[in-house]
Amino acid sequence: MLCATSRLLAAREASALPAHPRGRAPAPRSRRRELHFPGHPELPPGDFLVGRFTKPSVPTGRRVILRKGRMPPAAGGGLAGSELRPRRGRCGSQAARAAGRDVATEAATARSPKRPALPSSRRFEAAGRWALLALVTLTSFASRFHRLDQPPHICWDETHFGKMGSYYINRTFFFDVHPPLGKFCAFLGSMLIPLAYLTVLELSRSLSAALLTAALLTFDTGCLTLSQYILLDPILMFFIMAAMLSMVKYNSCANRPFSAPWWFWLSLTGVNLAGALGVKFVGLFIILQVGWNTLSDLWHLFGDLSLSMVTLGKHLTARILCLIVLPLALYIATYAVHFMVLNKSGPGDGFFSSAFQARLSGNNLHNASIPEHLAYGSVITVKNLRMAIGYLHSHRHFYPEGVGARQQQVTTYLHKDYNNLWIIKKHNSNSDPLDPSLPVEFVRHGDIIRLEHKETSRNLHSHYHEAPLTRKHYQVTGYGINGSGDSNDFWRIEVINRKFGNRIKVLRSRIRLIHLITGCVLGSSGKVLPKWGWEQMEVTCTPYLKETLSSIWNVEDHINPKLPNISLEVLQPSFPEIMLESHMVMIRGNNGLKPKDNEFTSKPWHWPINFQGLRFSGANDTDFRVYLLGNPVVWWLNLLSIALYVLSASVFAVAVQRGAHLPVEVEGLSQVLLRGGGQLLFGWMMHYFPFFLMGRVLYFHHYFPAMLFSSMLTGLLWDTLLRLCAWSLASYPLARCVHVLGILSLLLGTAYSFYLFHPLAYGMVGPLAQDPRSPMAGLRWLESWDF
Amino acid sequence: MLGFLQQPVMVTAEVNLNMVALTAVGLLSRLWQLAYPRAVVFDEVYYGQYISFYMKRIFFLDGSGPPFGHMLLALGGYLGGFDGNFLWNRIGAEYSSNVPVWSLRLLPALSGALSVPMAYEIVWELGFSHCAATGAALLLLIENALITQSRLMLLESVLIFFNLLAVLSYLKFCNSQKHRPFSPRWWFWLVLTGVACSCAVGIKYVGVFTYLLVLGVAAVHAWHVIGDQTLSNVRVLCHLLARAAALVVLPVLVYLLFFYIHLLLLCRSGPHDQIMSSAFQASLEGGLARVTQGQPLEVAFGSQVTLKNVFGQPVPCWLHSHQSTYPMIYENGRGSSHQQQVTCYPFKDVNNWWIVKDPGRHQLVVNNPPRPVRHGDVVQLVHGMTTRLLNTHDVAAPLSPHAQEVSCYIDYNISMPPQNLWRLDIVNRESDTDVWKTILSEVRFVHVNTSAILKLSGVPLPDWGFRQLEVVGEKLFRGYHESTVWNVEEHRYGRSQEQKERELELHSPTQVDISRNLSFMARFSELQWRMLTVRSDDSEHKYSSTPLDWVMLDTNIAYWLHPRTSAQIHLLGNVVIWASASLATLVYALLFIWYLLRRRRRVCDLPEDRWLRWVLAGALCAGGWAVNYLPFFLMEKTLFLYHYLPALTFQILLLPVVLEHISDHLCRSQLQRSLFTALVVAWFTSACHVSNMLRPLTYGDRSLSPSELKALRWKDSWDILIRKY
Known about the structure:
The structure holds two protein chains of two kinds. Chain A is built from 21 helices and 16 strands. Chain A is an alpha+beta fold. Chain B has four domains: about 35-100 and about 265-295, no CATH class; about 110-150 and about 550-725, no CATH class; about 155-265; about 295-505, Trefoil (Acidic Fibroblast Growth Factor, subunit A) (Trefoil), CATH 2.80.10.50. Chain B is elongated. The model of chain B is unreliable at about 510-515 (pLDDT under 50). The interface between A and B is medium-sized, with 25 and 30 residues. Chain B: It is found in: Endoplasmic reticulum membrane.
């Protein structure tokens, strides 16, 4: 690959001169030719699609007018400079972009009989660019598919996602903390590299920057490892990169709004956003980035007084349509499919509300018919309204010594179980209300009741003992023998939503149980009890009468032979309700992934410095081991580049602010650095810093989207810096080599480091790295890497 | 020569009577009957204990905020001659006569009172009229929640004072920047900005948000200075350096100074010692310092040591063993090695002693001269009381089955050989030949055969393990984590060859003398780190609330109830002011967006200077509200209504700004203007009226009848205490 590149370079050098337009370049411009990558692409390879669409749409005449009116044509290879020149005049961005197109026009007009050498060299160049892109793609595919079948066993999170794949196949409902799309395949990872390549090419208009980026990503062991397994991350990263690319593309079509490519890229951005969000919620960050970009874009348009309000309205509508409505529709559609496919009851049921479960076939609430209103003697299950808490539960085990009174435990339990059944009784009579001779008596708001646990015949009871985990609440126990207890078993039942009257309606009524003597409210704290409580959740009686969901319950199952049954169909929730509920459950689930006290967890500050990897498979020296760790050379170069970028960008920004007059070449480069690099840096920050605020368990692989942005930034930065370097040394004969040599050495360096570290990704056997006989001996540069 | 006598000596004084009057009423409202109630009110119970610690100069650790706030309150106690003897255990407890209630509450009250004229100054410096400025000050004056909070021994009013001071001095600095940069006045306000910011941060961590806001505004202004091409490069550099020094370096130094004074004052050991490292504890008078005083520094072969886990979560503990063995079969059916248990024990005990043994020799005493143990040496650890050796092997640990069991080896004569060699790994070594030092060295024990690391898993064992904490050999994870790191706390050279003598020796206290000191920076960083990471159990509170409850005052806090009558103090704001301040923020935001969009289309509704003034007022007041309010949505701690007061103060400052803007720019005719003025007067009167109605709940000076109290319960969510007779 590398020698192919250099051959291409040579070929370009030869073709550079003829491509130079009109030959009226003054002295400084001819120097620019040396500075820039020889034979700068008039139409970068990524633009082919655009090019194909656009050529018929814009008449040449208009382009010429544009060129005359606004800006002198940038000379040979000056596209980078003119494309990103600062805005002059009112609608500057258009002008700059128009000037960018200009060169293409020029190239087109230059196709005249005066320059007979041109067509063939152009064709040659175009072919070269395609070849380069193909090469990049091929290399990336080759590296990703090499030894894909090893190891043959399940690695790490594959247990998780593989299991979900099979759920889809069986159409069993399950619950996961991530949205549904994309648990199926895993080879989009290789597409990342061409996407990154094209993005950088579009931002910097420089082949060498794009090539460097592609090399960094191809030779990164971390990206490689991640792409080789059945995980969500390659899919997520694919959508993020695709969204980024299409956003950048549509930015560069901004001078031709409402043209076909413009619509194409805009809507493609929307589609990719939906994809990214559909895979994982981390996709939210790219949405924020695109959103920010769109806002600033609109802001520029808004400041352009030549555009009428109607045009602006069109712009706004187009963006709302493509970036909000379209992705939202797609996202909802994935959910619709998700719910449609998963219509059977499964282990995830308990996380959802009773009404939600009624739509899952196989669930006992599906097509069920139960009595509508609660009466004394009914056997019921009581479910907490807060999600993922479960049913009020008791079992034949006592609270252990030292935890409140030694009475029967009362907990909440997520799964359906006969121990969830309770009988509702009057507080003052023990006569069996199911006796057919007695009239049916409905339970009403404000009644004093007893709840008897059906299996153990003990009453729901509370008293002034502190609860096992939440010390400020009272303990709730099961008490009494055969249903006879004491006055601490009395509860007042209150209905919160009394629009159905004072009776208690199954599923619909939201009820509170208030302990008569202490005045506290029955609730679940959501804390998990230790082993003695079978890791079910704590039930307490809280003296704080705040209305929170955790102290509100509803009746789910209801058995009463004396009452007529009604069908539950009427209670089924609508689609928006389902959407809302499943999102609430997912957010709760995500936040619930809290690290335990002494667990070693990965901290966000570990990530960019490649502090510690993740063991994908195997731990001992006899195992086949795969270790997810970034290629340290690449990662540390990225880290250095971010610092260097901040430094150089602020130097340029201050210089501009001080009103310094930069030479045209430098100004072009500084614009690449500030605009293109700025977007990439913003992307990196958006995909990295939010993790510092997250309370959930974090893993090393969460950094990889940010790492993509940081690698692109590295490619762009080094290319720009080397060009600057070459420009400032232009008086020396060696100067023109500085750029080429620099890029080459970076490429070779990363390739060599990949050669060193490739066993991490492709798997290693043999002794651990401390052992001098190990294949990785001497490569354990940080003590925290445990391979 | 006596020429100066030819002119009369003139003193020209300009006294802004507005300011004087505002200061006077501010003082009156905050200081009136300050010593009433003579009982512990709400969070005074919390701050009070720290004041007592300061008075007794006992070390404490409080995770709620940096020490400056506590120190200010303690200063009040010091001035009042408080001896620290009071049991702060119950809200509502009567103060004993030795507690100088008045002077303890004086500083917060003064800060609250001075905030009133400062509000006036801020609005004036922002470029608005005296009328608006007076309005802002009056609103702060009659805001009931601010009055309540300033009249008690609490920190919010002090925080608000420094927040306002930072903003005010930055504005003054800005305005003198236009006229005479680098004048003494310019320097004074610049430096004061920095100092006020660090004071705000030093009182509560949330002060950092105001600091960042001021820093942000300063950065934008500095960026304009850079762009000002009439200034030379050198002058621009001077401007930047001056700002960096005063707004970044100085605050850091002042913040360090707080800790320096804090540590200087608190020199005695106290109840929170346990949380700190052994080295830190040894720097306090009494406590561990007395125990470890004069221990030999270098650990040698034959040394008797106790090993403390550095992580110390869930509790600080020492490596421990005892006669009992692991049960043959666990509850879940897994088997164990049935060897002697090794645990981590949170109390001092004779069973915490271990002897460092050279694997090559049999003796358990220290040679003369002692042979120090170095990094990389292989050692055996002998349990002092049972003389069994610390051992680990390929048996799953009782509660963490992925790790290896650690035991003291008993030879059952079965095919399970002892594996008791450990390699010493000094984590904080300076060179590879470092000697293992008492207290100072943090070491890991790496098992030679399996390369497992001795680690505290922190899980309490079941009853068979006496609920002590589990210790395991961690095999999978070989990176750095504090739970794998241990340090020697108590140490002496073993002298006795015989087991009986040695047991006696182990029971006797250690002696010999070497003094050691930690540098200030080391103590600061440790203390700061522990303060940030100490976990307060997230307790639910009756009066806790969520940020959404605050904007429209949907909640209150009952601070105090008279033991006999129904006189009571509540943190309860002036509803009219809260609602209109929130409304003003909304109006400001809408107007701002409207103007911004129109300016973008080159329609300038406001002249340039008016626009800039409007933007700056928004950045500081609306921005101040946002930065002091929005972060609470991300916080996981228990939140109370009083957390909103700093944000509210900024919001109130915005209110007259918006009103004046409406009257000047949106009222087109004189008639409209007069109508609007009348409306404003009516609104202000109603605010005064509400404030007056809520006064009994603010000062707690008058006992209201149940019906009056019920009448005051304007919102169902307010909790006003009504006695049942």
